[in-house]
Write a structure and sequence with these properties.
Layout: H1 20-30, E1 36-37, H2 52-60, H3 75-87, E2 98-101, H4 103-115, E3 121-126, H5 130-138, E4 142-147, H6 158-162, E5 169-175, H7 187-199, E6 203-207, E7 231-237, E8 250-256, H8 262-274, H9 280-291, H10 296-300, H11 305-318, E9 323-325, E10 333-338, H12 348-359, E11 361-362, E12 364-365, E13 376-380, H13 385-404
Parallel strand pairs: 1-11, 3-4, 3-5, 5-6, 6-7
Antiparallel strand pairs: 2-8, 7-8, 9-10, 10-13, 12-13
Helix pairs in contact: 1-12, 2-9, 3-9, 4-5, 4-8, 11-13
Length: 422
């Protein structure tokens, strides 16, 4: 039998967060090794619980969850999203402009598939959440990356973005608060992007899944409050703020220039109909989540677990001979760099594999996020501060071997023993 080849459409699709490293980690776990998984922001893995009121809302409505719902989602969930947007100053939005999806991930695919024709371009940040780049490529488009430079605290320069716009550019992606860097964009930057999008008639896709995960004095500005003269799609959901990744509930809210986008919105509706509907039980948790007590603030203030874990990362970097970082102001990650003067020629992918094989820590290389440099990697601050302190000890030990010229080979070390972690 001839080999069954995958689609050529996957040639430019990468998602290394769940790629070779994660597969190797699974193999090692089956061999008996305990792995610390810092590659994915998955709160439930680290003991975070969804608020009980959300679980009860699903249980009480299970009988109403057995049939398909409307392709856009159940009305109470969509209306709750509208009320949240209105409370933030977004105007002209009704439940008709809200689409519920199986997480933001599905909606990213839907909104791009409805928009793009062959070789249409979408402006995507670098570093990015790689699903955006992958989804553009899967839907026949071309991702054009605009730089978010470390020296600018990973905030984009609007002049850099505008220089990349061509006659094929259809949209721009904004991820704020940012994954992977933890940057929270200033009002001035967001206003400049909004005016640019209006000037060039670009659709704005604003990924705001971490909208309430903020530290210190960081202020989140909803993009939809700034975009008026073009279409804005705000993407968010229950996964991160409400620690409910497995519920697979996200939403896209369209605002701004709605009337000129009716044909496009009909296409999004058609694609939503083709998949019938998104997960119904999880949608019953939306109204309770958005209208109830926002427990995330307990976690992000000083003394809260996310705050203290972020501080453990900052302390580990301050004590390191090798690391540097732009302090994360939001989200649940740190995008850590290795000083070139300390370790010239550092390779993020080699380091990630060595760290997994020899120190049993799984992280995401920076190039997974479509960066042109190999000096960074991403970790999550979801583990406890104690676990993160141990992680930095392990990383420092490995980098000491690099600095001494005794770099381990990237293969399982037979002398390693299983180390239990909290």
């Amino acid at each position: 039998m001839r080999p069954i080849r995958p689609s050529a459409g996957l040639n430019n699709v990468r998602y290394e967060i769940r790629g070779d490293l994660a597969r190797r980690a699974n193999e090692m776990e089956r061999m008996g090794y305990d792995i610390i998984p810092l590659n994915i922001g998955n709160p439930g893995v680290f003991g975070f619980r969804t608020p009980e009121t959300m679980r009860l809302a699903m249980i009480e409505n299970l009988r109403a969850s057995e049939a398909y719902c409307h392709q856009k989602g159940i009305f109470p969930a969509r209306e709750a999203v509208v009320m949240q947007q209105q409370s933030r100053g977004v105007r002209g939005v009704s439940a008709d402009e809200v689409f519920m999806g199986n997480g933001v991930s599905e909606l990213i695919d839907l909104v791009l598939r409805a928009l793009l024709s062959t070789d249409d371009e979408v402006l995507v940040p670098s570093p990015d959440y790689p699903l955006w780049t992958a989804a553009v490529n899967l839907n026949r488009g071309r991702a054009v990356h605009y730089p978010c430079r470390p020296e600018n605290n990973f905030e984009p320069d609007p002049a850099d973005i505008e220089a990349l716009i061509t006659s094929r550019t259809r949209a721009i992606v904004v991820i704020n608060p940012n994954n992977p860097t933890g940057a929270v964009y200033s009002r001035a930057t967001l206003e400049a992007i909004a005016r640019m999008a209006e000037k060039h008639h670009l659709v704005v896709f604003s990924d705001e899944i971490y909208d309430q995960i903020l530290y210190d004095d960081a202020q989140f500005i909803p993009m939809a409050t700034l975009v008026h003269g073009t279409l804005c799609a705000t993407m968010s959901g229950l996964s991160k703020v409400y620690r409910a990744c497995g519920y697979r509930v996200g939403w896209a809210v369209f605002s701004g220039e709605i009337e000129q986008a009716r044909e496009y919105l009909s296409a999004v509706d058609k694609l939503s109909s083709l998949r019938l509907c998104s997960n119904v039980p999880g949608q019953w948790a939306v109204q309770t989540a958005l209208g109830g007590y926002q427990s995330i603030h307990e976690l992000t203030r000083p003394g809260g677990r996310l705050y203290q874990s972020r501080q453990a990362i900052l302390d580990g970097i301050a004590a390191s001979k090798y690391f540097e970082v732009r302090q994360p102001r939001g989200a649940i990650y740190a995008f850590i760099g290795v000083k070139d003067r300390a370790l010239p020629g550092f390779d993020d992918e080699q380091f990630a594999m060595d760290l997994l094989q020899h120190k049993h820590v799984l992280l995401a290389p920076g190039t997974s996020f479509n960066t042109p440099y190999k000096s960074h990697f991403r970790i999550t601050n979801l583990p406890t501060a104690e676990v993160l302190a141990d992680v930095f000890r392990r990383m420092e030990e490995l980098l000491d071997t690099y600095a001494s010229g005794t770099t381990p080979m990237s293969r399982p070390a037979p002398e390693l023993k299983v180390v239990k972690t909290k």
